[in-house]
Design goal:
- It contains one helix and eleven strands; from the N terminus they run βββββββββαββ.
- The protein has 234 residues and is mainly beta.
Length: 234
């Protein structure tokens, strides 16, 4: 089976530094027929979590309702923010072989809040992570209760409630399996539309056609969320 590999590049905000980070995401897709997606109803997902298939095509859906003033667009870090902040480190779609189900992966980065602010723990509020991908005609993929894989394993004497150290570069990865993709959508096209358009000099010229929103509950029940929209010059 031949593998077609393409380098996907985009810009995402890193809230701790209020800067733009360029990253490379890998799309590894075997040639062949279309990938099998999920149904238009909520189903349990392999590895944990529940799909948002019953909300396919719905506009503005988020499992964790975002406040009206919340925008997925990037903004400078606010040093007065009461708690830790969340940013996307990278995201992409991968399918390593014909026998391996494809999946979207998103890496999460935690920026510290001010001194003395609560720190997230490995339980992430006990509700897991919610991921939504939305296009012009509504929800394209989504799930909630998704587990994460931490970049650094817990020490043997650590409890799940042990606070993370965002200042030390706390990072995790969450996966969205194809069963969370709404019918009628293929993962390669979705991934391409999650990337911001660029010109011949690799300058970003607009926002992605599809939005990616990742949300979770913080240590005090506050909502942490991040998206794939990019900062643009006025």
């Amino acid at each position: 089976m031949s593998i077609r590999e393409g380098r996907l590049r985009a810009a995402v905000p890193w809230l701790a530094a209020a800067a733009v980070v360029l990253y490379g995401g890998w799309s590894m897709l075997p040639r062949g027929g279309p990938e099998e997606t999920g149904p238009a109803r909520a189903v349990g997902l392999p590895g944990g979590g529940v799909s948002a298939g019953d909300h396919c095509g719905e506009k503005g859906y988020h499992h964790f309702p975002l406040p009206a003033a919340t925008s997925p667009a990037p903004r400078p870090a606010d040093p007065r923010a009461p708690g830790p902040r969340l940013a996307l480190g990278s995201y992409g779609y991968e399918k390593l072989s014909a026998r391996t189900p494809g999946r979207f992966t998103v890496s999460l980065l935690f920026a510290p809040g001010p001194k003395g602010a609560p720190k997230p723990s490995r339980t992430l509020g006990g509700e897991g992570v919610a991921v939504e991908i939305e296009g012009p005609h509504g929800l394209v993929a989504g799930a909630h209760g998704l587990p994460v894989t931490w970049a650094s394993p817990a020490r043997p004497d650590d409890a799940d409630q042990t606070p993370l150290d965002p200042g030390g570069g706390a990072a995790a990865e969450v996966s969205l399996p194809l069963a969370a993709l709404c019918p009628g959508h293929d993962p390669e096209t979705v991934m391409e539309r999650l990337l911001a358009p660029i010109d011949s000099s690799n300058t970003i010229t607009g926002q992605p056609a599809y939005t990616l929103t990742v949300s979770l509950r913080g240590p005090d029940g506050d909502l942490l969320s991040a998206g794939n929209l990019v900062p643009l010059d006025p």
